[in-house]
């Protein structure tokens, strides 16, 4: 009987290899040969699933959202909080650092690739909407200043976290300092 191949699993395996290489060496280190070696499969296998390096990168960027969703997920039974979501976006541990390095590598690629840029715009919009919804709930509960515009504030908070994440990656802020700055900003808009 012929062996059944889970094609989606293979594509995910290749995307995981792309992410590992990107975290270690950036996208310039990603080639069909390197990905095949990292994934423990042949170059022909990679080419079977992806006609080109660009196709492989475009697929790999679609897999970033699931990792982000896992990082920012609220534990079962816990109340979702803006602070927890924002802190989860910082590279405070090895998986967070790797995720930030991979995302940054793809951001550079997105500047020249409209398809990848579209994935980032969509993901950012979903994240902004999630933060805005949490801020709206906090405002309705009386925990935020009545003058806070949840949508505008969500944009500001995500910009703050992006800058802080880069600062932590580059080593001119510690994770603790970045969290303290998030707390400072949140205290300014809280009642």
Automatic annotation (TrEMBL):
Record keyword Nucleotide-binding present: no
GO molecular function: DNA-binding transcription factor activity; transcription cis-regulatory region binding
Family annotation (InterPro entries): BetI_C, Homeodomain-like_sf, HTH-type_TetR-like_transc_reg, HTH_TetR, Tet_transcr_reg_TetR-rel_C_sf
DNA-binding region: 31-50
Gene3D superfamilies reported in the protein's UniProt record: Tetracycline Repressor, domain 2
A Pfam family reported for this protein in Swiss-Prot or TrEMBL: TetR_N
Membrane spanning stretches: none
Domain (HTH tetR-type) ranges: 8-68
Domain of life (superkingdom): Bacteria
Keywords assigned: DNA-binding, Repressor, Transcription, Transcription regulation
PANTHER family tied to this protein: HTH-TYPE TRANSCRIPTIONAL REGULATOR BETI, HTH-TYPE TRANSCRIPTIONAL REGULATOR RUTR
UniProt protein name: TetR family transcriptional regulator
